[in-house]
Amino acid sequence: MKNKIICLFCSLIILTWSQAQTPAVPVTYELSYSQAIKNLPGSPIPHHKVLILGSPHFDLSNNASDWKPKTELDMLGSKKQREIEQIVLQLKTFNPTRICIEWLPEMDSLFQKRYQDYLTGTWQLKAGEYYQVGFRLAKMMGHKKLFCIDNKPKQPESLLEIDDWEQYKAQQSEASEMATFDSLNERFNHYVDSVQYLMSLKNYLQFVNSEEMKWQEKEFGLPALCMRATKVLMPEQT
Predict the structure, then answer these.
(1) Does residue 20 fall inside a structural domain?
(2) Which of 33, 68, 72, 103 has the most CB atoms around its CB within 10 Å?
(3) Which residues form the domain of 131?
(4) Same domain, 143 and 164
(5) Rounded Cα–Cα distance for residues 181 and 225 (Å)
(6) β-bridge mates for residue 100, sequence order
(7) Of 218, 64, 63, 237, nearest to 158 (Cα)?
(8) Number of folded domains in the chain?
(9) Cα 28 to Cα 62: distance, rounded to the nearest angstrom
């Protein structure tokens, strides 16, 4: 899907009259700005719609994050299973033609095998969100396969200059940028983790996909960490 970028160029013409002018007669235009945008050459209507569902990891044994929730929800229990079924039914109304899951493409053959076994009833769903939501929805939609699309590009070399981040953090003072970041990050993750035990799965997914959460996650993401590390390593450049 291509982004539509509209650049508005304005030219200002200043005219000077030596005598008073009569009031201008209001002009009625036939074309609105939205219609002008719609008619732009080279701006076709997108052929695809994409729904991205952010989700916590249902199976913590595969959670590679540096934050580990203190308690694991029982996603295979009857209560959560009913909630997952309702969420999948709601996602069905989007009428997806392709379903993608957060696994690297080289894992594709493994997941296709598991999905086919799931369809034939010879393999039972495990707790992972890619199974509970992805496999269920794909089966409900009659899809023959799913798509593994995760991507883990190589990190810039500058991020690898510190061999042991834990040792580096331990050497920093309590007032350092790294200590401040860690403290705020800990509070943020603890809160996000704790509220899921007080909410239905549907409401929790709405919460983690909200615009407010997106902004908060940017505050504690890799760019924010790099900015804080730069202040410590190269203060003369900040």
Answers:
(1) no
(2) 103
(3) 60-148
(4) no
(5) 7
(6) 147
(7) 237
(8) 2
(9) 62
